[in-house]
Write a structure and sequence with these properties.
The chain is of the alpha+beta class. It is built from twelve helices and 23 strands. Helix 7 crosses helix 8. The N terminus is likely disordered.
Length: about 475
C-alpha cells in the first residue's frame, strides 16, 4: 500500500526514500538549509531508526542515506560530546529532535584556538553548518539523551580526513576511514595522522562574555525570566563590579549628567515631582541622579529582580517587582515628569514589546514629559552589533524566530543567559514616533572609545518628548 501524504510527511524513513524527487533541487547550501527549515520536525517519527548506544561515553550513528545527500541520525548519551572538528569541503544543517544540543564554534588563528560563539538548541532547533565550520556538538544534559538529525553534502561515506582538535593536549588528529566517530579517545589505529602540540587552546577569561544564541528563540516570558536570573546571579556584587570598569564608569556618569541637565531644564518650566525608572536595578543610578539635581521628586521604579529591587528600596525608590513585557497603564501611573530606561532597553525581547513599553511610557507622561533611555547601536564596530547582524545571516536565525540585532550571551564563568537587542538607528526612531512621541533627539555617546563623550561610534542616548 502506498504511503499517503500525511504519513510521508511524518515519517523520517519515507522522507529519506523520497529525497531524489522531494529533496531540494538544485542542491546547494542555501537550498538544503531552506528545505530543512521547511519541515515540522516535532511531528516526525524517528524512534524506530534510533541507533542503540553501545558505549555510554560515545555517541551512536545511523546513516540513513548517502544520496542525493547524507542523512544521519545520532543518539548522544548524557554529557557526551564530539571532539572539536573541522568541516572542510562539506556543509549542511543539524536538527535537534529531542534533548538539549550545545554547539560550540571555535576560531583558529596563528595556532591559537578560541571559543567564537555557542548555540543552544532544543526540540526543532536548527543549526546551520557552512563549509569551514570548526566546532563540537555536546549533549547539554547530564541526565537525558540527545537525538540529532544531520544533513550533509557532499556525503561522507566515512570520516577519512576529518581533522580533530584535542583541547587538553593540543594534539591535532586526522581520522582514517575506519574511525567510527569523531572522538579523540579512539585507538591509534583509527587515525591517519597525529600531530602533537599543534595548537594551543585559550580558555575564556573569568571576566569575558560570549554569544550563546538559543534556537528556536524562546518566548518573551522565558527570555524575561532568563534576564532576571542573569542579574540575580550577581545582584550582590553588581554595583561593585560596575564601578571597577573605568570606561563604563565614564559612560554612565556622562549619561547621568545629561539626564540631570534635562531634569533641571524641565524643572524651570514646570516643577519635576515624579520620575519613573523602568528596570531600576539596585537604584544606585536613580538615587545618584536625584542627588545631583538637588530636587526632591518622588522616585518610582519597576524591576524584574527582587534582589536588586530590595537594594533600590533602601535607596528610596518606590519599587514594584514586575514585568515590562505585558506592561499596561495602571491607575497610579499618571502624570510622570520623566521616565528613564537605562542600559536595559535592549533586554526587551521583541520589537512589538519595545514599542508597547514606549506607548505606555507616553501615556504615563504629563504634557512636556520626557522618556530618556540609551540603547546598544547595531552599527558600533567596537560592540557586538555587527556580530549580531553577521550571526543573523550565518546562523539563519530569521527562520528561528529572531529579529536582526538579537543576541543571547553569558559570562564565561556564569550559568545564566541574558538577551540583548542591538538597535538600528532609523528603525528605533520610527518605533518611537509610532509610539506617539512628538519628537526624538539622539546622540551617540562613546563607550569603548571616547567614553562619555559625543562620538561617531558608541551607544545611542535618546530623549523622546511628549508635546
Amino acid at each position: 500500500m502506498a504511503t499517503n501524504q500525511r504519513d510521508r510527511a511524518n515519517s523520517l524513513l519515507a522522507l529519506v526514500k523520497d529525497l531524489a524527487t522531494a529533496g531540494p533541487n538544485p542542491l546547494n547550501y542555501e537550498s538544503l538549509c531552506s528545505w530543512v527549515e521547511s519541515y515540522d520536525w516535532k511531528s516526525m517519527d524517528w524512534e524506530l531508526l534510533l541507533p542503540a548506544i553501545e558505549d555510554p561515553t560515545d555517541y551512536a550513528r545511523n546513516i540513513l542515506c548517502l544520496e542525493p545527500f547524507e542523512v544521519v541520525l545520532i543518539q548522544w548519551p548524557p554529557g557526551v560530546e564530539s571532539a572539536v572538528h573541522h568541516h572542510e569541503g562539506f556543509w549542511g544543517a543539524v536538527v535537534c529532535l529531542s534533548g538539549e544540543l550545545e554547539n560550540v564554534a571555535y576560531e583558529l588563528k596563528q595556532d591559537k584556538l578560541n571559543i567564537k560563539e555557542i548555540i543552544q538548541a532544543s526540540s526543532q532547533g536548527i543549526i546551520a553548518e557552512p563549509d569551514g565550520t570548526l566546532h563540537k556538538i555536546r549533549n547539554g544534559s547530564d541526565s537525558e539523551s540527545l537525538v540529532t538529525l544531520h544533513f550533509y553534502s557532499p556525503a561522507l561515506a566515512d570520516l577519512d580526513g576529518l581533522v580533530l582538535y584535542d583541547l587538553p593536549t593540543g594534539n591535532r588528529l586526522t581520522c582514517n576511514a575506519l574511525a567510527p566517530t569523531a572522538s579523540v579517545a579512539l585507538d591509534a589505529s583509527f587515525y591517519r595522522m597525529v600531530e602533537p602540540v599543534a595548537f594551543e587552546y585559550v580558555a575564556p577569561s573569568d571576566a569575558s562574555h560570549f554569544h550563546c544564541n538559543i534556537v528556536p528563540k524562546p518566548n518573551p516570558q522565558s527570555i524575561e525570566q532568563m534576564v532576571s536570573n542573569y542579574y540575580a546571579e550577581h545582584a550582590s556584587v553588581y554595583d561593585a563590579q560596575d564601578l571597577q570598569v573605568l570606561k563604563r564608569n565614564r559612560y554612565t556618569a556622562a549619561i547621568d549628567n545629561r539626564i540631570v541637565r534635562s531634569f533641571l531644564d524641565m524643572n524651570e518650566v514646570q516643577p519635576v515631582r515624579k520620575v519613573m525608572h523602568f528596570a531600576c536595578g539596585t537604584g544606585r543610578r536613580a538615587a545618584s541622579i536625584r542627588e545631583l539635581t538637588s530636587l526632591h521628586y518622588e522616585m518610582h521604579g519597576v524591576d524584574l529582580c527582587p534582589e536588586m529591587a530590595d537594594q533600590a528600596r533602601q535607596r528610596g525608590v518606590q519599587v514594584e517587582v514586575d514585568s515590562l513585557i505585558e506592561i499596561e497603564l495602571r491607575p497610579h501611573w499618571q502624570s510622570f515628569d520623566a521616565i528613564t530606561l537605562l542600559y536595559a532597553y535592549g533586554h526587551l525581547p521583541s520589537r512589538r514589546i519595545r514599542k508597547q513599553v514606549l506607548k505606555t511610557a507616553h501615556q504615563m507622561l504629563r504634557s512636556g514629559g520626557q522618556m530618556i533611555f540609551d540603547v546598544f547601536d547595531a552599527a558600533d564596530p567596537a560592540e557586538w552589533g555587527p556580530d549580531t547582524i553577521r550571526q543573523f545571516d550565518e546562523q539563519r536565525l530569521g527562520s528561528q524566530g529572531y529579529e536582526k540585532g538579537d543576541v543571547f550571551y553569558k559570562r564565561s564563568r556564569g550559568e545564566e543567559l541574558a538577551f540583548m537587542h542591538y538597535c538600528d538607528r532609523e528603525t528605533l526612531e520610527a518605533v518611537i514616533l509610532e509610539a506617539g512621541f512628538d519628537s526624538v533627539e539622539m546622540k551617540t555617546i562613546g563607550y569603548d572609545q571616547k567614553s562619555g563623550e559625543e562620538a561617531e561610534t558608541g551607544k545611542l542616548f535618546v530623549v523622546a518628548k511628549k508635546a
